[in-house]
What we know:
The complex is a heterodimer. By secondary structure, chain A is an all-alpha fold. Chain A has helices spanning 2-20, 29-43, 52-66, 76-81, 86-96, 101-112, 116-138, 141-150, 160-170, 174-192, 200-213, 224-233, 238-257, 262-283, 297-318, 321-343. The two termini of chain A are 21 Å apart. Chain B is α/β, with parallel strands linked by helices. Chain B has a 6-stranded mixed sheet, with helices on both faces. In chain B, helix 3 (90-100) crosses helix 4, helix 3 runs parallel beside helix 5 and helix 4 (105-119) packs across helix 5. The chains are: A mainly alpha, B alpha/beta. The A-B interface holds A 146, 149-150, 154, 157-162, 164-165, 168-169, 172, 222-223, 225-227, 229-230, 232-237, 342, 345-346, 349 and B 47-51, 68-69, 72-73, 77, 79, 81-85, 87-89, 92, 95-97, 99-101, 126, 128, 131.
Amino acid sequence: xxALIAILKALRRAVLRDxxxxxxxxxxxxxxxxxxxxxxxxxSGVEPVSAEPLIILLALxxxxxxxxxxxxxxxxxxxxxxxxxxxQRVGLRAAAAAVxxxxxxxxxxxxxxxxxxxxxxxxxxxxxxxxxxxxTGKLRAPKQFWIALRHIxxxxxxxxxxxxxxxxxxxxxxxTYLAIVxxxxxxAYRFFTPHPDAAAFPIMAILVALTLSxxxxxxxxxxxxxxxxxxxxxxLCGWQILLAKxxxxxxxxxxxxxxxxxxxxxxxxxxxxxxxxxxxVFSYLPLQRWRFAGGRLLxxxxxxIVMGAVLAMAEQxxxxxxxxxxxxxxxxxxxxxxxxxxxxxxxxxxxxxxxSLS
Amino acid sequence: xxxxxxxxxxxxxxxAVDDVTFQVPGGVCVxxxxxxxxxxxxxxxxxxxxxxxEGEVRILNLDSTRKPLALRRQIGVVPExxxxxxxxxxxxxxxxxxxxxxxxxxEIRERTASLLGMLGxxxxxxxxxxxxxxxxxxxxxxxxxxxxxxxxLLLDEPFEGIDPVSSxxxxxxxxxxSQRGITxxxxxxxxxxxxxxxxxxxxxxxxxxxxxxxVARISRPLDxxxxxxxxxxxxxxxxxDLPWLRSSPS
Lengths: 358, 250
């Protein structure tokens, strides 16, 4: 029994540490935008109905990383090496469910909400996603994901491999997947609704760009220590490295806003990048794969949201001169912050993730 | 080739490298010292990854802080943490470096094939780095350091975590390329390898150089000299401090 309690205590500690990595969502531009929507509705004395679809999307994307089996935090070989009896292993399997964050959230919903149906729906959704994650894990989905990444074409030129690398890195953060879900939903609205409102497309493109915009503050965060060391060993200037990162960001954004409004989406994206370089170069914010990016709320996050939205809306009125102007501003930002990057000392090595036991 | 003058690096109150001066004219120079002696800090300053607080590094007459880009084109480096990306395969790392150093597609293909073959990692060429063993990762970093035909190689512990067969292959390669005029500078703890390869050795202790000499001029066995200069191993009965290791298991 003492062995089981010791393992469960360690497992709970690992799960709590893992949950801390989700804190970044508090300083994610999309989350801030949704919070502002709710605040505006509540202060006007109406139900925050307009925010509900966005909250559901956010919760849906978050359910995937939250639904992983807590026992997977113990490496399989370690679990096999421990001298546990068969019944102890069965007990561990059953007790591990108690340290799942999904169970805690469902319990909290049951206790605090007057409508138990919501907690039940949450648990059913979590169970369905857990089953999906488990079955795709059996089907070696993670391996298939990496194999799929190999098929992304390398852009030509001297910086082609760097652009490819940054594109792949963006495909391992949840912001990109939330943007994909939004883009797919908006595209479906455009092509499968009998009379879609054309004025909504630029708004949807802006929303997709806003979803990606926090990552523009964390352009070096997935490189961690070794990646930054490699950048500094390559005979490249800082502006070339930033250019490759921006190209990857804009490439993904371009594809996602292509069915909606390219000028509006790219205008927001370019503004987000021009502002985000400052935080990316000076702060190296911590970011883990399969989590939302977290940025600096003040002033960078707010400036990104306000400036991006204002310029993108202005583009709708003034025309294509706005994207060109903001592209020039982004080019100046790349050059200036590339120079800072060249002169700045490399960051101290990021602490490795401690959310698993080994 | 390599000229370090009065190099000093401090981290807070501790002095990692203290007024280090030495020259390496060519050949294979090995930097020795125990853990924490300042070897990696010194190598990072030489590679331009860390700015010295005092002093200067000149490699091929290029100052590492004033001419960093020109210097990076001439040197190949295997840093302490290898400087690799989890999202790229072994081969893609070489394809990343090739164009950046101005190599054309044919050169990259030919050199990649020969380097992967020589290092015995052909079968891992399409494996992502986060799925590779430490040995394969180290060999990938080594291949990246050699790909652009550098004039100076700076290697941090190149033989740590490498299997014996690959270690011999890399030793032979380093000996051969130093014969062709490439200067090799590396840190190591493996004294038999040092004895075999080094033309010059530098021993540092607590950030200071305690010996810098050509191997040909050293008459004593390297082990004896190293333990005398860097610190001898403890000789007392260490198991006396761990009495429970001898008790019968409960």
